[in-house]
Amino acid sequence: MFTKTQIATAVALASSVLPASSFAAEEETKEAAVLERIEVTANRRVQNIADVPVSIAAISEKQFENLMSGGGDILQLALQVPGLYAESSNGRVAPRFYIRGLGNTDFDLAASQPVSVIMDDVVMENVILKSFPLFDMQQVEVFRGPQGSLFGRNSTAGIVKFDTAKPTDDLDGYVKLGGGNYGSQVIEGAVGGGITDSFRARVSVKDDRRDDWISNGFTNEKNIYGGHKDTAVRTQVEVDLTDRWDLRFSYQQRDLDGTSTMFRANVLDQGSNKLNGNYKRDEVYYNDTPEYRNFQKYKNKGYSLYSNLDLDFATLSYIGSLQKADGSGFGDIDGGNEGGPGDIPFQSNTADGADVKQLTHELRLASNNNTGLTWQGGFYWFDSELTVETDPFFTTPSIVRHDNKTWAVFGQVSYDFTDALTLVGGLRYTKDDKTLKDIQSNINFKDVTTDDSKVSGDLALHYKVSDDWAVFSRFAHGFRAPSIQGRDVAFFGAPSVAKSETVTSIEVGTKGDLLENTLRLNTALFAYQVNDPQFTAVGGTDNLVQLLNADKGKAYGIEFDFEWLPIENLLFTAGFAYQKTEIQDKNLVVGICAQCDVTNPLVTIEGVERALVNGNPFPQAPEVTGNLTARWSQEVGNGEIFAFTDWSYQGKTNLFIYESQEFNTSGQFEGGLRLGYVNFGYDLEVALYGRNITDESNIKGGIDFNNNTAFVNEPRRYGIEITKRFY
After folding, report:
1. What is the pLDDT of residues 703-724, one digit of tens each?
2. Most CB contacts within 10 A, which of 125, 166, 333, 708?
3. Which terms does the UniProt entry file under GO BP (predicted)?
């Protein structure tokens, strides 16, 4: 739930940011007729966003509510923030995030990602953990650029940070009921408050269901794919041991029974990136069986302990967490059957299972003052064990285990030279060790190990030109540890290893409130270079998933967003990002598809054609992205009617490392709409929603080794939601 106080800290810079609009705050907003002050926790302190010399973005309450209407998952965040993109070929698990073009297209359950996902200050490192359902959120922030001097886990691309609503002394909560097309049903709610003067608790739940709606034209079975049952719960208790020491414990779990991504065979003609007549939104042509019907089943459990001890001069904080997940899924990789659609040279089905356990400890000491010289430092420990089973169905399944141990020390210092000029600097030392073990395979490989250590850091300058306008600059150096890919052992291939990548980034930006605080404008110019960037060569005629390092990768771009309140009941927001990415390696070659038109230069190596990819853009890095929202409201009696719409745009995007006529997209867009009535007296909202209201079929990814296979976005969804809040 979003309370008035929580929303004040919920939104952040350089994105589509909306002012808080909890029912109780509505009258205050109208009286002020100005944009609300925004506070964020980018530096692990509550600060005015205009005072933070970091490029941050956020999703506001109303935008988040609209995106998640009717059972939206974490992928709905894609394109809603300038510079942020997300996609997945693993259904409702294993999202892949990209910030400023930097990400990883690897679909394996052991994939390493340069974008960190942090939930309640705990890193969700494995891709299964990243997909935990989003509900009862307090704030969502996106940090662009290398991070590491403040948070436990370092990243080269950035951080997507989720903070859930916490227990408070006052009783509050909400209940939301929703229903829509495809038989969708959503029940969501939370209740929390003080039990005694020193003890508080909060319980949050979400049950999200959708009926099967995709038919199998090959077996003539109707509505057997596309549905899901996704249930999650979170329980938090907080106690004040003394007036200086508090503890909070959190437990969360998830149970998902759903459908893997629907791959669609030969929906792209050779030489074209447009969906052809083989594509039908609600029909595929699989030759699977009831036992292996594109299923996806996963369970998560997470335990976290938080401690804060006030030492007068500083606060000592501890965060410990144990996260577990296990499950499996099946995918019809070729997207069809022996008879088509189109030419399918051979059948390809894969089942994957995973069992992950992640243990983290973070100890941090932070000064208690907010001006002059402020500082914080910490120690971080990360230990994970992931067992992955891959069954290709033409030979014995393989089982491998990934072990990863990491520790780091980090710190940051901020100094106010004047009331207007602030310098911020941070350093981090990271030691990382990884091992891949053969539990069961057809090639019986020896243990594969990597280890590396690096120093990374950042330096930023913030200057207040006036009370309403500030400029900032930031230099950062990031580090991503070596990665190991073990999926290919299931297909008689050797494991692959990518060495460490480092990134050096620089950006300058502005933050300002104009027109008597009715227009907020934020801009940023950035450039970065990645040395030894880690890429994943997926597919090709060999159907392998191989890690590789390019020599260099370079990118530059611009981001801006604005928030404009022309009149008290009409709000516009917009965001735009342009990013130019380029692989720089004259000798880098990758496998290609046999049935498509590759536009890169080709070379023959050991009788096999490969593509030279020097100069290509990073895969899944949209050149242009944009978003636009508008919210209008009109007071009616003791309430209001409102209309909210959001639109996103995705420009040219290359899907693989090599370039071809088929596997790229451009000019894609989606829109959402929410119409409703709010009764302030009863704190009750009734709203009609629509997602992808123009029913666009947008290609989100492809598979190239067998035929021109693609997968697409969610269909048009619409329905009604009723929300009752209480305080």
Report:
1. 998 899 999 999 999 999 999 9
2. 708
3. iron ion transport
